[in-house]
Specification:
The chain is of the alpha/beta class and 316 residues long. Helix content is 39%, strand content 23%. It folds into two domains: 8-122 and 174-307, Acetylglutamate kinase-like (Carbamate kinase), CATH 3.40.1160; 131-166, no CATH class. The two termini are 29 Å apart.
Length: 316
């Protein structure tokens, strides 16, 4: 353990890291992928960082919706907001158990816990009326037409494959922050805002109410990092860096960006909407609000990126 003063890192881990595209993952597969994804988090713990982990749930919550549909004539389907909470629970359990084992094996044992986190959103957010967040795996064209006929939203993703889309409101604040903060400060590794957190709003009569939507996990990680006054936002993905002109023959990796440079490139569409652009925007929001450091890096290069030897660092 390092003797340097404790620093706080929020680590955003994609749902695809646990259930890769193109793979029909069993739970055994997802546990295996989870164990394989934790090395950067273990390294941070060994280096003395306080850690909060945020994970996505795009593939998993899509699978839950399919289970809903298959069984809807036998049991009552569950709404999307409840499924977000459910996936946050069982994905959190996978990460929690795997991380406890990995930390113990590395000689950096710490308590690890999962918080099913409610996240405040605006019920009038236009994103709720314009579904754009891809979830689940690709589906055949005929099934896509059937889902559309049933009133569901389906679009082609950047690979030209049909997938479900749902509303994705902007996160405003972390409702359960005062539970998360003291745990993090005492050294517990906290898995929070799983699946982007459960979106809620304050109803004038009924108080807290849920919304059937999915919050982007990178956006909520930026809000959590801001509200925790974290020193670092680490977004782990399947690409080795942020690239300018992604998808073109002139694409190039960017090792370091200022906020102004990132905004200018984003304004001309250099990052690819629906892929890297949301990650860059989340990083820029966090850096602008806190002056901290944000890094986007490939999963296996997480700690190298923290030391400035990989990935893309975004700073003021």
């Amino acid at each position: 353990m390092s003797d340097t003063p404790a620093r706080t890192a929020v680590v955003a881990l994609g749902g695809n890291a646990l259930s890769p595209p193109g793979e029909r993952s069993t739970i055994a597969d997802q546990f295996r992928h989870t164990r394989e994804s934790l090395a950067p988090i273990v390294d941070l713990a060994r280096d003395g960082w306080r850690i909060c982990v945020v994970h996505g749930n795009g593939p998993q919550v899509g699978d839950e919706l399919v289970r809903n549909e298959v069984a809807r004539n036998i049991v009552e389907p569950l709404p999307l907001g409840v499924l977000v909470a459910a996936t946050a629970g069982w994905i959190g359990y996978m990460i929690q158990q795997s991380l406890e084992n990995a930390l113990r094996k590395a000689g950096a044992e710490r308590p690890v816990t999962t918080i099913i986190t409610q996240v405040q959103v605006d019920p009038s957010d236009p994103a709720l009326r314009n579904p754009s967040k891809f979830i689940g795996h690709s589906i055949p064209e005929q099934r896509a037409k059937e889902l559309i006929a049933e009133g569901h939203s389906v679009k082609k993703d950047s690979n030209g494959m049909y997938r479900r889309v749902v509303g994705s409101p902007a996160p405003l604040s972390i409702h359960d922050l005062e539970i998360i903060r003291p745990l993090t400060e005492t050294g517990t590794v906290v898995i929070a805002c799983g699946g982007g957190g459960v979106p809620v709003y304050t109803h004038p009569v009924r108080d807290l109410e849920g919304i059937d939507a999915i919050i982007d996990k990178d956006a909520v990680a930026a809000v959590l990092a801001r509200e925790l006054s974290a020193d670092l936002l680490l977004i782990l993905t399947n690409v080795d860096a942020v690239y300018a002109d992604w998808g073109t023959s002139s694409k190039r990796p960017l090792s370091r960006l200022t906020v102004a440079e990132a905004r200018a490139l984003d304004a001309r569409g250099a990052f690819g909407e629906g892929s890297m652009a949301p990650k860059v925007r989340a990083a820029v929001d966090y850096v602008t609000a806190t002056g901290g450091r944000a890094i986007v890096a490939e999963l296996s290069q997480g700690m190298e990126a923290v030391h400035g030897r990989a990935g893309t660092t975004i700073a003021r």
